[in-house]
Amino acid sequence: MCWCGSNIASTVDLDRVQKAVEKLTNVVHVEQNKYTCSEPGQAQIVAGIREHNLDRVVVAACSPRMHEKTFQRTVAKAGLNPYLLEIANIREHCSWVHTSVEEATPKAIDLLRAAVAKVIRNTPLTTSTIPVEKRALVIGGGIAGIQAALDIADAGHQVVLVEKEPTIGGRMAQLDKTFPTLDCSACILTPKMVDAAQHPKIRLLTYAEIEEVGGYIGNFEVTIRKKARSVNEDVCTGCGICWSKCPSKAPNEFDCGLGERKAIYIPFPQAVPNKPVIDRENCRYFTKGKCGVCKKVCPAGAVDFEQEDELLRERFGAIVVATGYELFDHSVYGEYGYGKYPDVITGLEFERLINASGPTGGKLKRPSDGKIPKTVVFVKCVGSRDEAKGFPYCSRTCCMYTAKQAILLREKMPEAEAYVFYMDVRTPGKGYEEFYTRATEEFGVNYLRGRVARIYPKGDQLVVRGEDTLVGAQVEIEADLVVLATAMVARRDAAELAQRIGFSYDQYHFFTEAHPKLRPVETNTAGVFLAGACQGPKDIPDTVAQASAAAVKVAMLFSRDELETNPMVATVDEGTCSGCEWCKPTCPYGAIDIKTIEERVGKRTVSRRVATVNTGLCQGCGACTVACRSGAMNLKGFTNEQILAEVEAICL
Amino acid sequence: MAVVNLTEIVRNRKEFIDEVEKHGGKNVNSCYQCGKCSAGCPVSYAMDYQPRQVMRMVQLGMKDKVLSTSTIWLCAHCMTCTTRCPREVDIAGVMEALRMICRKENRPIRERKVPLFHDLFLDIIRKGGRQHEFQLAARYKIATGNLFQDVDLGRRMFFQGKLRLFGPKVKGAESVRKIFEKCKELEGDVQ
Q1: Most CB contacts within 10 A, which of A543, B113, B140, B148?
Q2: Would you call B44 an interface residue with chain A, using a CB distance cutoff of 8 Å?
């Protein structure tokens, strides 16, 4: 029994507990330590086992999530099977949640009685091993996916990088400059894109999506749908004649619809791979059956109208999910014009409008009439920190990118005035606060503290009405262009992807890490890791750091040839299994299958259907044991008999 | 501006906030001072404190100060602030609650004409079962002493048939009176 300093000892009278526990049947020896997890504390357990010839051990201390592994190793050192140990959690479940010694002490005795009742029914369990397929799948070809793929590949492992758009690069490719250094986004991203394309260990699958994921850590089986590009990638040289001759136009998604592209296109000049794709919905050949100009002009004969979606089945040992984010749709804000004023744009649209490869060639012109704006108002927290119309969370990047955009505006067009409506300025990053200070001091950006109440048209301008809460007065600005820092939100199909792979996501559909502090890149599904904004709003430095962290986790996994499995898995007693198959749909991991066994009944041999557990897939959650009507399903280490013994010990 | 000693005020603020919320002001503690309410308020120009500042005073428990503002009386209850609030605070409801507390405790009222108008408005309905605009205007003008203000507007409204000299005949006047009695029984008389 551990004091945990004063954490337990101050609320639980351990001497009284000791007296009560010593009287229990099967209890041979009881002792106390100030810190059982310390080396002397562990040595005491080993000595106790040897001296008293113990074959079961109960440690009454903190949660098994803290030190179960530690004490399993301790008892193993004394020659016991590690699964002959039980933890009675008298800290989180007892001393920390009670204030009165009189209440906590009897509860601690109950918890110990239950643990003793269980441990005498524990059986030795042994782990088995499964092989590891040393190939990684990275889903999403933005900066997170590219970085993760490069790092895994540099560690010497094969990587398949899947991107659903025709090119890798993601959101970062759409940005103009990056904070706080103001280096050009494309200039630092494109070398990485090229590295990823040319790395001998990386295989790019662009214009492809994940169709199905099966299997488990070390042995995932993934079906990838390679969408029909209508262009033979192996033959195409990327010469560009096809898209220069194509007669059909469509809004360019890469420019947020502000510019146009052809029906056969590459999204932007530095696209990787530099191979076009035909947008069949807008292509004259596919809609009207006539045209085929691209096919006629292609010198390599790469255009293939008959190409079909291709399904690839691949095996992977680990998956990195790096699917990124989307922007909040501000059309829910009636007071900001329901998203209908052409000169009220999002931050990402602003990036395209000042980018040299954008629809205006880098000259800031407003979308409605192409006029050069003289007054630009930036509005922060649109959709963020707003549970009424958007989401309560902070999107983390907007403070900095708004400061950056205001600086870029003042730098390019010093005669233009910049206003920023803010609630708080959050700059927790290296060099971030200094950057914001430069915006106000060096570049003369006007920061106004307050949320904008209304934007309405007046002539060809937009009136922005807010309160300067520091003055305590309503203020109005007649603006030519309004830029909304819309929230970062999870991708529309994020939940669907998480369900397909089998890991959890939060109420906003961001993917959930296994532990918010100590396991930030793992999911709670072994072998699946997270990188970038799919896990939560994130800027580029944090995204890259997380991507490299995920890559290290994958490399760690691949440093072993075999994995030890968790022995606490479900097992079927085939004798009592009635083959009702009720357990099968209950299993969240798809670990239960049905097999046919043959058995002799009297003189005849009959075949019967029974459940069987794939121990590689089973995570030991126990859902099947509850669903099982005949009691044939049992979880090793947590058998029905053990659980009932615990219940009895507490209740009787 | 005088220094506000918060020591005692903050200690008792829970009591005050509970009182405000009991009278219908929702989610006072959620306010994060963004100012969207004040920015959109059509009456803000006439107020001595912005609606946002009123919210802050309530959060801190500055009961005496907040109940002496003109803001709580000038609020027209148009609900623009409540509709736009990103934190789902019922700002207009808070204003209403503050007015009720002020009257229940018989505190001095900053904008005396506002409750006067409300009282006359309700009195006419109580007695006659329906509003009678001519009587309301006349009684309000006499009570405030501004006899000749709005005369021109009144004349035009009269000739367009918008102001009738005699009050309407109402069938359910007795039922309306009972509603007032029931309210008085439940809430007490605040007039």
Answers
A1: A543
A2: yes
Q: For residues A618 and A636, what is the distance between their CA atoms, to the nearest angstrom?
A: 11
For the whole prediction, is pTM greater than 0.90? no
Residue with tokens 């007490």: B188
Residues A288, A250: Cα–Cα separation, whole Å: 15
CB A454 within 8 A of CB A344: no
pLDDT class for B187, splitting at 50, 70, 90? confident
CA distance A546 to A157: 19
CA distance A349 to chain B (A): 24
For residue A391, what is the nearest residue in chain B, using CA coordinates?
B86
Chain B residues in contact with A450 by the CB 8 A cut-off are: 34-36, 38-39
- Asked whether the beta carbons of residue A469 and residue B36 sit closer than 8 angstroms, the reply is no
Kindly state the tokens that stand for A512. 């959930």
pLDDT at B189: 60
pLDDT digits (tens, 9 = 90+) for A444-487: 999 999 999 999 999 999 999 999 999 999 999 999 999 999 99
A467: nearest CB among B39, B49, B85: B39
Residue type, A44: Q
**Average pLDDT estimate for A364-392:** 96
Give the three-class secondary structure for A526.
coil
Q: Which domains does chain A have, with CATH numbers?
A: 14-120 (no CATH), 135-227+309-325+490-558 (3.50.50.60), 241-297 (no CATH), 326-489 (3.50.50.60), 570-636 (3.30.70.3270)
Mean predicted lDDT score pLDDT of chain B? 91
Please write down the HEC assignment for all residues of A168-219: CCCHHHHCCEECCCCEEHHHHHHHHHHHHHHCCCEEEECCEEEEEEEEECCE
